[in-house]
């Protein structure tokens, strides 16, 4: 069964360092997402990506964050100058949609980011 | 702004009985609703969905009910099994939008 894969599963970084989280969405999916979940809190939307550009982003997704689909298979989330409050589980998700098809999200297993 | 709310952080149910998980939303423009299940150290997995044109959708042991006037949906699991123990997230979106809005989750424990 096709799945969304994420690497690394866990990353520990020092405050102020840059982090890149990688995702390989399901191959025929068209929409890509990043969500995060701070421990004990809700799953929060960060950004959605379609047709090689950001289609929606939340208030959390400020200039510190960027996304890229560099090679047609990977989908990356870059966090510049990490802060303590960036510590969270980051989930990549993808969705296939055709007009009129609502399409549920398929999630990866998450990348846990710990900022010290 | 919490547009999707799950007011019960946890629920315990005996094996074989019915589990009812509840979700409320504030935005009347939502027209597609989903339930996800999440085990520890795994990503959420899709369980069942319902569009706003329906009031019930059933898939095996899982049934989702939607009450649009009350802006409320619920997930019924019958009969509950120990393997159902997980965190359940309710989510909603606009049919024309890309963003899915998630609740805070309800941790279900099914006691053997």
Number of helices of chain A: 0
Oligomer: heterodimer
The sequence of SSEs of chain A as H and E is EEEEEEEEEEE
The count of DSSP E runs of length 2 or more, i.e. the number of strands of chain A, is 11
Low-confidence stretches of chain A: none
State the share of residues found in helices of chain B, binned by percent.
under 10%
The radius of gyration of chain B is 13 Å
The biggest sheet of chain A amounts to: 7 strands, mixed
| Main beta-sheet strand count, sense and barrel state of chain B | 6 strands, mixed
* Overall pLDDT level of chain B: 93
What does this structure look like?
The complex is a heterodimer of chains A (116) and B (112). Chain A has 116 residues and is mostly beta strands. Chain A has strands at residues 5-7, 10-13, 19-24, 31-37, 43-50, 53-57, 65-68, 75-79, 88-95, 106-107, 111-115. In chain A, the strands form 2 sheets. In chain A, strands 2, 4, 5, 6, 9, 10 and 11 form a 7-stranded mixed sheet that branches. The radius of gyration of chain A is 14 Å and the shape is globular. The termini of chain A are far apart. By secondary structure, chain B is mainly β. Chain B is 0% helix and 54% strand. Chain B has strands at residues 4-5, 10-14, 19-25, 32-38, 45-51, 56-59, 62-67, 72-77, 86-93, 101-102, 106-111. In chain B, strands 2, 4, 5, 9, 10 and 11 form a 6-stranded mixed sheet that branches. Chain B is globular. The N and C termini of chain B lie far apart (38 Å). Chains A and B meet through strand 4, strand 5 and strand 10 of A and strand 4, strand 5, strand 9 and strand 10 of B.
Summarize the structure.
The complex is a heterodimer of chains A (116) and B (112). With 116 residues, chain A is mainly beta. Chain A is 0% helix and 49% strand.
């Amino acid at each position: 069964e096709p799945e969304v894969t994420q690497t690394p599963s866990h990353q520990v970084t020092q405050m102020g360092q840059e982090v890149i989280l990688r995702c390989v969405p399901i191959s025929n999916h068209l929409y890509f997402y990043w969500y995060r979940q701070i421990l004990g809190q809700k799953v929060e939307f960060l950004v959605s990506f379609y047709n090689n550009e950001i289609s929606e982003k939340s208030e959390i997704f400020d200039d510190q964050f960027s996304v890229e689909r560099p090679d047609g298979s990977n989908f990356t989330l870059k966090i510049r100058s990490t802060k303590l409050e960036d510590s969270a589980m980051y989930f990549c998700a993808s969705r296939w949609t055709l007009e009129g098809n609502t399409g549920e999200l398929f999630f990866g297993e998450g990348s846990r980011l710990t900022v010290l | 702004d919490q547009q999707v709310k799950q007011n019960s952080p946890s629920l315990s149910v005996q094996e074989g009985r019915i589990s009812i998980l509840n979700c409320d939303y504030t935005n009347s423009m939502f027209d597609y609703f989903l339930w996800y299940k999440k085990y520890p150290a795994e990503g959420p997995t899709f369980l069942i969905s319902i569009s706003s044109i329906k009031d019930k959708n059933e898939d095996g042991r899982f049934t989702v009910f939607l009450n649009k006037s009350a802006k409320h949906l619920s997930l019924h699991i019958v009969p509950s099994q120990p393997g159902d123990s997980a965190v359940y997230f309710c989510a909603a979106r606009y049919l024309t939008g890309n963003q899915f809005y998630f609740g805070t989750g309800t941790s279900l424990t099914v006691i053997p």
